[in-house]
C-alpha cells in the first residue's frame, strides 16, 4: 500500500526546506521499498494570497484524507496587516484534526555537541522525547477572565484526556529505553495529583516501562544538569510548552528539531519547531535538518518505515561528521549543498 502525504510548504523558508526534505525522502525511498504519493496544498500566508483564507477548505480536506501531513513553516511580516493571520490556520487545523499530543525529540548528535551551550561531557548522548498534552489544561480551561483588578485562568483535566496522553507516552517508551518521567507539580496542584493517580493505573499495563515523577521545577533543572537522565517525558500543556523550548535550547540550534502532533484518530502532522525565519529566506542559509528530521519521524511513527528512516539518519550523521553544515550550526554549507551532500551519502550507502 502506498502512503499518501499531504504537503504544506507554507511561507518564507518553508518551501525551501520542504523542497530539501522531499528530495532526501525521494532518494531514501528509491533505495528501500517505501512508496508514497505527495499532494501539495496552500496553507498559511501562501493560502491567504491564493484564496484569502489561511486554511482553505481543500487544504483541510486534503489533510484529513492523507495518511500523514508534512508542514514546513508559516507566517511572517508580509501578512502583518492581513485581516486573517496565517497562524489562525495552524490553530484551526490542530483543532479540526484533534491533535492532542505534541511529540518533540531532543537529540544531540555527536557532531553537534560543540553547538550546545552545555558542557560536552554533560550533553553528549542526550536523546529524549517530550510528550506534551496539547489541547487541554490552563490554555483552554473555563472560567477565564481578565478584569482591571483581577484575572482568572483555570487548569482543567478530564481523566480521559490524561489517560490518552499517558498511553501515547508509554507506548513510545516501549520503542525506546523503557523509561517514562511524568512531570507535574503534585505538591501543589490538584490536576497534578490526578495525573499521578492515573499514571499508577496506566503504568500497570506497561510492566516493562520504569516510571518516575519529577516536579516541574526540579525537571527544568535536571534538563540542564543531567539531560541524559531522560528517555520519555510526559507532561501537561503549560509545563510542556516551557520544557520543550528549554530542551530545544540545549541542542544549540532551532534549525534541527522536528515535532509530531498526533490526533485521536486520523493523520499526524509533522513540522519543524521553528518559524518561517523571514530574516534568512531566499539567502540559502536555511538549515534543512528540522524538515529532514520531521520526515524521518513521520517515516517511523506513521509508516513504520524504519529502514528508510535509518538510511536518512546515517547519511545525515555522516554529512555532519564531514563538517558539512549550514551557518546556524557553524558551517558554511547552503540549504542546497547540505541537501545534496546527504543525498550523495544515501546513494553511496546503497
Ligand atoms: P515564530 O513566531 O513563527 O515562532 P520566530 O520569530 O520565533 O517565529 P523563527 O522563525 O523560529 O522565529 O526564527 C528564530 C530565529 O532562528 C531566526 O533568526 C531564524 O533565522 C532562525 N532559524 C529558524 N529556523 C531556522 C532554520 N531552519 N535554519 C536556520 N536558522 C533558522
Ligand atoms: Mg517562535
Automatic annotation (TrEMBL):
| Domain Isopropylmalate dehydrogenase-like, first and last residues per copy | 4-342
What SMART domains does this protein map onto? Iso_dh
Q: Which GO terms describe its molecular function?
A: 3-isopropylmalate dehydrogenase activity
Q: Which InterPro entries match?
A: IsoPropMal-DH-like_dom (IPR024084), Isopropylmalate_DH (IPR004429)
Q: Which reaction does it catalyse?
A: (2R,3S)-3-isopropylmalate + NAD(+) = 4-methyl-2-oxopentanoate + CO2 + NADH
How is the cofactor bound, as the UniProt entry phrases it?
Answer: Binds 1 Mg(2+) or Mn(2+) ion per subunit.
Annotated residues for binding of Mg(2+): 217, 241, 245
Q: What does this protein do?
A: Catalyzes the oxidation of 3-carboxy-2-hydroxy-4-methylpentanoate (3-isopropylmalate) to 3-carboxy-4-methyl-2-oxopentanoate. The product decarboxylates to 4-methyl-2 oxopentanoate.
Which PANTHER family does this chain map to? 3-ISOPROPYLMALATE DEHYDROGENASE
Q: What is this protein called?
A: 3-isopropylmalate dehydrogenase
